[in-house]
Amino acid sequence: MSGPVVALSGGIGGAKLALGLARVLPPGALTVIANTGDDFEHFGLPISPDIDTLLYTLADLADPQQGWGRRDETWSFMETLRQLGGETWFALGDRDLALHAERSRRLAAGATLTEVTDQLRRSLGIASRILPMSDAPVRTRLRTDSGWLDFQDYFVRQRCEPVVREIRYAGAEAAAPSPAALAALADPALRAIVICPSNPLLSVGPMLAIPALRSAIVRCRAPVIAVSPLIGGRAVKGPTAKLMQELGLAVDAAEVARGYADLIDVFVADVADAGIAMPRGITLVTTPTLMSTLADRERLATEVLKRGLSPL
Amino acid sequence: MSGPVVALSGGIGGAKLALGLARVLPPGALTVIANTGDDFEHFGLPISPDIDTLLYTLADLADPQQGWGRRDETWSFMETLRQLGGETWFALGDRDLALHAERSRRLAAGATLTEVTDQLRRSLGIASRILPMSDAPVRTRLRTDSGWLDFQDYFVRQRCEPVVREIRYAGAEAAAPSPAALAALADPALRAIVICPSNPLLSVGPMLAIPALRSAIVRCRAPVIAVSPLIGGRAVKGPTAKLMQELGLAVDAAEVARGYADLIDVFVADVADAGIAMPRGITLVTTPTLMSTLADRERLATEVLKRGLSPL
Prior knowledge:
Two copies of one chain form a homodimer.
Chain A: E1 5-9, H1 12-24, E2 30-34, E3 40-42, E4 45-47, H2 49-58, H3 76-83, H4 94-108, H5 113-123, E5 129-132, E6 139-144, E7 147-150, H6 151-157, E8 164-170, H7 179-186, E9 192-195, H8 200-208, H9 211-219, E10 224-227, E11 230-231, E12 234-235, H10 240-246, H11 253-259, E13 266-269, E14 283-286, H12 294-309
Parallel strand pairs in A: 1-2, 1-9, 2-5, 9-10, 10-13, 13-14
Antiparallel strand pairs in A: 3-4, 6-7, 6-8, 11-12
């Protein structure tokens, strides 16, 4: 299983598989392209939730309970903010804040998000590359019955409760992919592209909405393998199922595969979804996909790579 | 000693007397106008060091050793920032960060610095009003042998080591005073204006460089009392003496009094400076001015008010 691999990932669920891939591949063989449609500014600080979750997960610093944030976190900032009557709907740990501060400083000094992220992952001792999908802002917005919401307003402040009628990835059409992401996808030695089991609408959707990123994946000769985020029609975590239903989609793994039909060669679904119909030309692989333990992550990563690297 | 009193203050030294004044005056009788020439943005957060020191000091939250920052502080943010290779020359505690975040949020929402500061002091249970000298940015800059430096670069990062040739208060000429500060100075019931023992060049200088603030003090019929920051030609803390010398001034209390000559009625100097020459029309009062204990602060505050309120 040598040769570079590119993974497309959102936050928690995707990061689990990314960690598995990082552990079963040789050091440095993995490049993770991260969704930045969730990025926002809070208190003047630039926050990239999916990149941050990937950084903490791959650095083995992630909080194992929550999936986001750091496990060695302290909370004096939030506690004081509450005492001051400040906005506390987005949890920011004291150590997590340092990441945002350093990102803020380096962006203000003229570095790109790609450069800043690369510096951060090196500081944290991560061998895999983590790249934003774009250095330009792309912002996922959701139309609900009470109007358009910014992503974090919907996702964190309102806990995904509003019914979503439409999703837009503002800025995606005009955004150029991160040059490093394009280079990774154009690498003739590339062995596979893995679409992690992230929310197809909120995490993978923004990436595929960037025209040059989508076309680079379509053009790529390496196999593209997507892993289903749904198991038996239910999401492991997060609003994937609820969103699909609200948008009139079938709530099952087959629907996810159809959404990726023009991109993928292999679709990895859970054993609970054995026998689902695949679009023409796509190979279905079923295997246990629930990643509770580190061993689960490594096993699924190995399986995904094996299927991707074998003749189709 | 009833009736409103206005104090002009910088950070640590001035805040000590401001605390004494707050404690000997009836609750709410004191308004402190704070220097904002030291304000800067760090990591995208707006920081107002002198306002912050006043807030913490008057809320009885100040670190008694350092004078700045909070005594109940934790340092996870700085520790992590150091691990990330970030800029750690300006110490920001985890709890202190919450103040800057809340300020950032409220300024971004359109509040003025006067409004934000008033909300913060209320949240912290401070009865005295704390007002920025202006809602417009005024930035103290220092010309050294290696060029112009921003204030915090000079003061914190370079520990006041560069030799200063010239000081400018960028933006002061065009800045309007905080409307609340002007209103406090125009209050016909005003009993006294106290210029705290702050650095005359770095802390009081920026305030007096705002034309409408200076003229409001000149016009005011209440007595103006300045307290010397120098004792026997030495500063209690900070670069006052070094700076005065570098700028070719005499390094003594009399020089400070001359600098305030067109504004003040009474000059309070330490007993060590008994007999110094005063400009015409200014009454010299000598009393112990070193404020080591809380009792010292209250005693000096009482003395200053007594001298200011008695017939000159």
